[in-house]
Amino acid sequence: MPAIAASRLRPVTAPAGLLLAVAAALLPLPAHAAGGGTGDVADALKKGPVYVDPRATDQLPKPAAEALAKKIKDAGKPVFVAVLPESAEYPKSSVLKDVRSLTGISGVYAIRLGDGFNAGADRRVMSRNSVDNLVGAVRRSSPGNAQAELTSFVDQALEQAKGKAPGSWAGEGSGGGSSAATGLLVGGGVIVAGGAGAYALFRRAKKKREERERAELDALRVVVDEDITAFGEELDRLVFSPSEPSATDAMREDYARALDAYDKAKEQMAAATTPQDVQPVTETLGEGRFALATLAARRSGAPLPERRVPCFFDPRHGPSTEDVQWAPMGGAPRPVPACAADAVRVKAGDEPDSRMVHTDNGPQPYWNAGPAYAPWAGGYFGGAGGILGGLLVGTMLGGLLSAPSAFAAPDLAGPENLPGGGEFTGSDFNPSDFSGGFGGGFGTDAGSDFGGGDW
Q1: Helix (H, G, I), strand (E, B), or coil: what is residue 31?
Q2: Looking at residue 354, what is its pLDDT?
Q3: Residues 99/427, Cβ–Cβ less than 8 Å
Q4: Has this prediction a pTM greater than 0.70?
Q5: Residue 195: is its pLDDT beyond 80?
């Protein structure tokens, strides 16, 4: 046999040290593992649900950490827990987002940092409302007791979290010995292959979401272009010249603001690439219409209008003048802001002149047209923090608008196609779902600042 052929058939033996190094890298870390920054925390959470920095063992002793890890694994839910000391390695302002980003797995993440506690979750796994409410309740029920706090949070999160435990947890607790090392080497290849498959699924889901967002943006573009056109027609009908003798500086400023809003709205809409980019466009149009209403009042000598949101029934009607009692179909009556004409109609028992938009089921009022119109409404009415938060309970749009992060969500239009809990997404997630501080002495508010006593 030629020498070259023999060399090709000669078995290649990897150095024993290399095999041991690879096997060691694949061995799962226990619930307690050496600390070394957010990267080490993320590496540990890929292998098991609970990580305790050795410097924080007084917060969650090893037996309690192992019991908590077992509970999570038995439930099969993507719930991650980290107990960390106050340290420069764990930046208080970003540790939650950093750990989620480096772990790369969608799920619920709870972090005890020193005496503070915070949590976040991918919205496909657990809603922001649920996380905020749960964090607040846990803080108030178990102040200063890390073990009770974490146990309470995990118990509730396991009941509410969607999805399943990541496949990378499956090897935790494997036996030792050379045969185990061999199994880990083979299993590592399976995990890599499985991870690649999961990532391919994620990429397909992301592509589908992007396609739907483009379609929704096209639909929104029609509605917003109608709004911009209507505003431009109002400007054309306006018989006002900045140089006319009766014009004042205040009038000229109002007129300039209206013209600037018209131009700005056109530029913003031309630059829009996602449905969420529509929100600042309608916000600009709302500002422009208020400027026109103020100019009209100055010219007629009427009292200047109160700074109010646009007419709820159709923002093209301009700023609202009063609140009237109104009920959406199937909903309870509630006060809504209305223009003068719609206020008269509602009080007389007639239907208001509502903004209708196209849907697959024919024309519908925008509040029944689905989540794609949330950014459009959010610009006019102040987003989730505005009047719509509790206004439209019982309507298609209402439930979405009541969520604190509704208008910051890049996946607003299609959460059903986002990766489920326990799936690999890398650093592609909504950072607003993992924001806030770490409350210590807890107040009653568990909103965006996560209670009193933030760092």
Answers
A1: coil
A2: 94
A3: no
A4: no
A5: no
